[in-house]
Write a structure and sequence with these properties.
Radius of gyration: 25 Å
Shape: rod-shaped
Helix content: 25-40%
Number of strands: 2
Structural class: alpha+beta
Oligomer: single chain
Number of helices: 3
Order of helices and strands: HEEHH
Largest sheet: 2 strands, antiparallel
Amino acid sequence: MQSARVGKRGAIVVPAKLRKRFGIEEGSIVIAEEKEDGILIRPAIVVPVERYTPERKAELLLSNAIDEADYRKAQRVVRKLGLDPDSIPHRRPV
């Protein structure tokens, strides 16, 4: 257990030994979580979010169809997106 001092505006300096152990560097993002007996500070994992274009949605719909009936349904949904299913690169179900 190591101690840290709270500075101006609530800034806390995490001891170097703990920063190294948990891979916390300058600019790292951490999560502060309220617990019954105190505050838990831990490294955060940042996961990029992919925003799907209509074409990417169409590709996923068509490629993930499991049978011919599902594929036809996907084609209808793609047409509702205003796209031609035949113009979208994808894998047809076997």
